[in-house]
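Suppose a colleague, Dr. K., hands you the sequence of a protein chain of 225 amino acids and asks what its three-dimensional shape might be. Before reaching for any lab equipment, you can write down a predicted structure in token form. Begin with the sequence itself:
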Amino acid sequence: MKVLLVEDNERVAAFIKKGLAEAGHTTDHATNGRDGLFLAASEPYDVVVLDRMLPGGIDGLGIVEALRKTGNRTPILILSALGEVDERIRGLKAGGDDYLAKPFAMGELLARLEALVRRGSSAPVETVLRVGDLEMDLLARKVSRAGKPVALQPREFKLLEYLMRHAGQVVTRTMLLENVWDYHFDPQTNVIDVHVSKLRQKIDAGFPRPLLHTVRGAGYKLAAD
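The predicted structure, expressed as tokens, is then:
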């Protein structure tokens, strides 16, 4: 699943992102209502996990209502410390698909998200990612380019998966640190540069057209054109 998490509490967000990553899911994270609404409206997600109380001029219910008014039907699970029946009813009436009170168990959150995705779409779960002639089989954990196998270490595989899921987009160092390394601070090392360099050698060396590009001053982009 590709999940959008809108949560301003760093500890809660880290807990959720870690659990989703361990279950094999990809997460984009926004820390306020304004950024959360922008991402939800501009990117395709399988499901949104949305905190009820948010900074940024718009709260969780405001995001739900704004999305539904534009016809966006992405399943939304609302997280909130406000667990009273009236609050749950408000969340569901606003357009939320499920409501989970804090504190919660990660296992229950995962089960609810998987149920929402199953309920919301009959489309098959994505198991193969492709960018140009580069292919990643998520089930077999194998990568190939132009039919030639590419051997990757676990961290390289995770890095490439994140880049492929964001193909054509500029991916910043902060995005990679948070989603591939699960760092919520900059360790001031060249760990990203080293891994990107090794990954570039493995997927681009020997091929006439490079796929992994450095965007000077911004980050990296995986693109076939």
